[in-house]
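User: Some background: our group keeps a shared notebook of sequences we're curious about, and every so often someone picks one and asks for a predicted structure to add to the entry. Today it's my turn. The entry only has the sequence so far, pasted here. Could you supply the structure so I can complete it?
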Amino acid sequence: MKPVTEDFVLRKMHELPSLPKALTDVIHAIDRDNTDQRSLIMKLAQDQAVTTKTLRIANSSFYGLSYHVHSLSDAVSILGFRSLRALVMATVVTNQIHHFDVDEHALEALLNHSIQVAVHAQLLASHVHLLPEEAFTAGLIHDFGKLILLSEFPAHYAQVRELQKTQDISLCDAEESIMGMNHAQVGKLLAAHWHFPPEMQQAVGEHHAPVTMQMHTLSVLIHTANFLVKETFSLPEKIQQLRRNELIWSILNLDEQLLEDMAEKADAGFREIQSIWVQP
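Assistant: Of course. Here's the predicted structure to add to the notebook entry:
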């Protein structure tokens, strides 16, 4: 019997530390018309570590705000509540990954990949008029399903890697063959457990799925951002492969110059955001 089932994953998620109550209050209240902004800001500000890191991201040169953000009140005024929520969620969830029992090198590699995808996602979102902060956060968490698979079944995951290599199949196919679920499916459940918005949950679950017209644009965007950070292809090869996929090219309104410019910005953005997250 394959070890990973939806019931098992859900049980394991309930063993994880809960997100800070201040954040869950913000997540649930932000879409209500009667939101007391001042009250929510005061709740968030009680977590100094989260506040400091969120403001570092907002003030990064990659983020490119015209004004320096000195406080969460400033952030609300300049970014709006939805954008602030996404940034805070990204900060809090990134702190959560250290609760998983995963090899330090594997964790570092996953976080670096996640930041790269997040940066590409934010740049693409600006181009297609999606909220960049929500795209960044969806990109950041897109592979977090691997954390549960790696922490709970390291021996099985070693078999997954071996099967992927020897049979030349996709990682998701190998995961399903050995474990019963793939990391995108597990990640979608994790995003739901953490109360992420439905379109983010969907984007996590679909980031390896073939793109269709029925997909939310955020799902197409995360799928594409994930492809753009692959090290197995050069940038010209990636552009040509995306050109051949008329659906992606059309939905995201891509062009060669955009992708070339974005690659340069993404490299600098990755280094800056990575340095923020490794700071205490």
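Suggested note for the entry: The CA atoms of residues 54 and 88 lie 6 Å apart. The mean pLDDT is 88.
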